[in-house]
Amino acid sequence: MKLWITTALAACLATVATAQNECAAGKTLTEGTLTIATGNPAYYPWVMDNAPESGEGFEAAVAYAVAAEMGFPADKVTWTRTSFDQAIQPGAKDFDLNMQQFSITEDREKMVDFSDPYYSSAMAVLTTQTVVDAGATATPDSLKSLLWGADANTTAVPMLGALIQPEKDPLLYGDNADVTAALQAGQIDAALFDLPTALYLAGVVVNGGTLLGQFPAERTDNPDQFGILMEEGSALKDCVNAALARLKDSGKLADIEAKWLQDATAIPVIQ
User: Fold this and answer.
1) Is this prediction's pTM over 0.85?
2) What range does the domain containing 134 cover?
3) Could you read off the pLDDT of 192-227 as tens digits, one per residue?
4) Which residue pairs, CB below 8 angstroms and at least 24 apart, start in 247-256?
5) Domain shared by 104 and 137, yes or no
6) Do the domain assignments include residue 194?
7) Which one of 101, 145, 149, 217 has the lowest number of neighbouring Cβ atoms within 10 Å?
8) In this structure, is residue 28 part of a structural domain?
């Protein structure tokens, strides 16, 4: 009986693998190979050490997981580089798939195709090490006591009310550049940004910038959603969506997110 079950399971898995291979057969730029593009350079934590071929970093890991679900082992994945702006322009592409934290928008969907979302962006608390050293922590009570800043023209203000309910009215600014300048100058203690933007600002823009914590995406109305970009009318779209669906159903996609966007960044989740 055990032998029969093992044989049946193997046959079932082989059938699934064949179906996955057939889904993408003849639809890639190079037969038998999946060409994936990322940025030049590609940044942490999306790609570690600017080396997507390592499979390390959130988007690099997702790329290889999607490729495997589509029937392409790691040695059949080829990487190329594009700029963000170049990738979203209409026209023929020199890649099959492109992953560079592309938000899915109606305007972009007029020029390129997107997969179903592979990531819904969390909102993160950007602050400075000075504020952390003064005692700020990733707890509701501590967050409420901080002096917040926000771009008056964005959804950051109602988001602050929904997620944090600060004790003091936030200081409002004309744009996010003014918000980060105020943070740098010590005029405010913290600001809310989507996680990718917050990581960039903490690492590149704000001296001594750091992330105090992140809110789960499901606690945010209309979170920013990232999709895998493809040439408009790509024959691979259904295959990619099917691969993502299997990764979501199996829990593998959630595991990759936890590893690279929570554990690797060491940014606590605020509940």
Assistant:
1) no
2) 123-219
3) 998 888 988 998 899 999 999 998 877 776 778 999
4) 247/62, 247/65, 247/66, 247/69, 252/65, 253/62, 253/65, 253/118, 256/58, 256/61, 256/62, 256/65
5) no
6) yes
7) 145
8) no
